[in-house]
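Entry 14. Two folds queued back to back today. First construct below, sequence then structure tokens.
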Amino acid sequence: MQKKIILGSSSPYRKALLERLNLPFDCHSPNIDESPLSEESTQNLVQRLTIAKAKAVHQERMTKGLTNDALIIASDQVAVLNSTILGKPHTQANAIKQLASFSGQKVSFLTGLCLFDQESQTYQYKLNEFHVYFRQLTHQEISNYVAIEQPLDCAGSFKCEGLGVCLFDKMEGDDPTSLIGLPLIMLSKFLRNSGVNPLS
């Protein structure tokens, strides 16, 4: 019998990505404090939050008396420009400002992935780095893009699965799905390690 799979996220982008693997799963949004700690490195922040999300879902399931035999998928992502962590823009003005600062620059996306096995109380973790090189952008292009796609809930103010690709010179990394927020190549490996093969 295949283990129950839970996506520890309310993100519609991560949900759409996981659906690609054609496995049944439920979504459960973890409730954690995502504030960075003093002097915490970006890599450590992503790892801490990713694992904390998985454990929070586990604890909430235990509190509710639900079965403890699920595989919990959790992910966290941070965008970085010149060592500065970039948040979600939330407003059109912030998105335009953020994209203007990216013009001609390299932006790095650090995406943590955790698969927590409730039964064994163990987890697999991996950090995936992906780099996006922006071309020189005009203010009109940026304004038009933001108006069309409204990427206000996306770290980096763009959707690479949509019109956002028109902003780039090139992309660099092992797994393009990590840029959207859930590295499917590594997740498939983690699932196989736990006895779940999407192709079987």
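Second construct, same run, same settings:
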Amino acid sequence: MDYIKNPETIEKMSFVIIDDQVKADYGGYPTENQIEKAILRRVIHTSADFDYLDNLHISKGFIERTLKALKKGLTIITDTNMAYSGINKKVLEKMGCKIRCYISEDETARYASQAGITRSMASVIRAAEEAGPKLYVFGNAPTALFKTLEIYEKKDENLIGIIGVPVGFVGAAESKEALMTSSIPSITARGRKGGSNVAAAIVNAILYEADHRYG
């Protein structure tokens, strides 16, 4: 069988196909900002879903705020090991940043059981107790997003922002609407669509821009 095997070639060809289809079927990207275009391109690439051209919402100032924080060093908190696995660790380490996922830790399970809450909520509570600037990345758990909004209802200088794209039918759309109407800098996706792969794609698009600027 004759097929393309090189991963870089596959990615480049995919981006060309995506750009061509966006131009042909949608009249182009809904933004002239090159970083926002890169985010949309990667989200479509990982999901094969062009609905994100309409669904994805990026709050004003979020990207520049996050890029500056990455340069200084921050910790990314993910709600799933899948999102954790999909984020480029090499670039993170190069930027002097960290990434944590508390979901599978025994302490998280004990806390959740004792408090009668989800492990995702317990993970957020534990993360909030850690010092230093944080970027929360949610692709699966609406309860984690809701809990983060509760914790950071009052402005906290250590909260850089939230990438909140949980997927699902119970609380997913509602949690994202709550995020969009909050004052917290964010990227989110309206409606039920999202996922850990989408969350990781958004983070990576921003990381590659940070690496390009500061690497």
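Quick look at the second one. The mean pLDDT is 95. The radius of gyration is 17 Å.
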